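From: lab user (bench 3)
To: helpdesk
Subject: output format question, protein + protoporphyrin IX containing FE

Hello, I'm new to running complex predictions and I'm not sure whether the block I got back is the full result or only part of it. Here's what I submitted:
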Amino acid sequence: MRVADSWLDALTARSYEMLLGHFWLPAMRVFVVNDPAWVERILVKEPHRYPKHRFMHEALEPLIGSSPFTTNGAVWQRQRRMLDQAFGAARLNLVLPLMQAACADMVQRMQILPSPTALDVDAVMTHVTADIVYRTIFSEPLTAEEADTLFGAFVRYQNLSQKATVLKLCRLPPMWFNRSREREARVIRDFLASKVRQRFADRTREDEQQAADILAGLRLAVDPEDGTTLSEIEVLDQICMLFLAGHETSASALSWCLYLLGESPALQERLRAEAFANPDDLKSMERVSAMFREVLRLYPPVGYFPREAMEDQEIRGTKVRKGDALLVFPWLMHRHRRWWTNPDAFDPERFGPQRSKAPLRGTYLPFSLGARACIGAAFAMQEAALILSQLLLHFDFASIPEHRPRVVGRLTVRSDKGIRVLLKRR
Ligand code: HEM
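Helpdesk reply: Thanks, we reran it on our side. This is the complete output you should expect:
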């Protein structure tokens, strides 16, 4: 049950040195693949032979229904074709003003707080990232009350879902966890469903031609293979998935960023100087991006990717059977003793303009690799540069010695009791 609270508790010192590990659960044999050549094979060269594992679908289905984060084969291909069109419609330069408006609102909310104040970083980062993706989907802002409700429901969902999954893998009855997590999922889905329903009622498909948001893109998307469009329930599943995949991950990484910035006033100064030099040119903020990439290395929001072996085979001399689970594990790859010098140290220079070499292929994969890589990677990088630079321009951050966050592995990599840093207005 300790592992049910955080999968990090299942790892040992050897996990960070081995190339292939395994453990047997009552319901499943699981292999951990830390060999970059095999990671490339599973994710990039032969992804059809290693589809997403069904337990991922079971863990997320109450929330995201049938959508590309967990589906496979022809169903995934169709959903991805539709999503690519909708996401294309919300191109980065189109969504930039929406991101900027959400960011300005965040700064305004923070400026009226007493200075200094112990800031609940997770709540603030979740609010702004949820607001950004929400504006991109619906072209309207998310209120503080709505953000709080969704955040609370999702934190509870993560805890319950992880416990339900571990019990299932141990062939134990789900107790009350399944029912409780469904209740939390309903809070989120009902909220998004009401917005989608309203839009279907208020606007025809023709009206959507005028809109430039993701919801309009999904309604207008036509499958080039068979000419079909998405039904209301299919649109809702995609929206739920995008809303969650699009904010929970970014919020996790940005919260760790603020914690690490609080630990290093000198780093804040260096990044601030870059943000001051050209506040509107996010692409020129190489140091800010390097810091974000290093945080994605140390705290990859998606800690592991479960895949399923489609046939019997041998991996590094070990027999793997059809149906076995293979875990590609960014958390381990990013801190692996063989692939990184000083792997546990926080060092943004690894990704800075002066870096001497790029990471070895297959050893750095916060957004995954290959056909199933994150559709929102560029969106997330733009959003992070904007949020971090704006925060640095307006505030100083300092760590609070008595508050050291303990990292836990759940659906995303989070801190067990949240992250707090001291915020001072500049
Ligand atoms: C720092 C932020 C983010 C991180 C670290 C991240 C990470 C990932 C990872 C690792 C996967 C693959 C998971 C797997 O293979 O099991 C993924 C998939 C996905 N992500 Fe992200 N993501 C981020 C932000 C976003 C954003 C902003 C969006 C959309 C607005 C998004 C949408 C998606 C979608 C749709 C998929 C499924 C792609 C497919 O399988 O076709 N993500 N993400």
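A quick orientation on your result: The chain has one domain: 2-425. Let us know if anything else is unclear.
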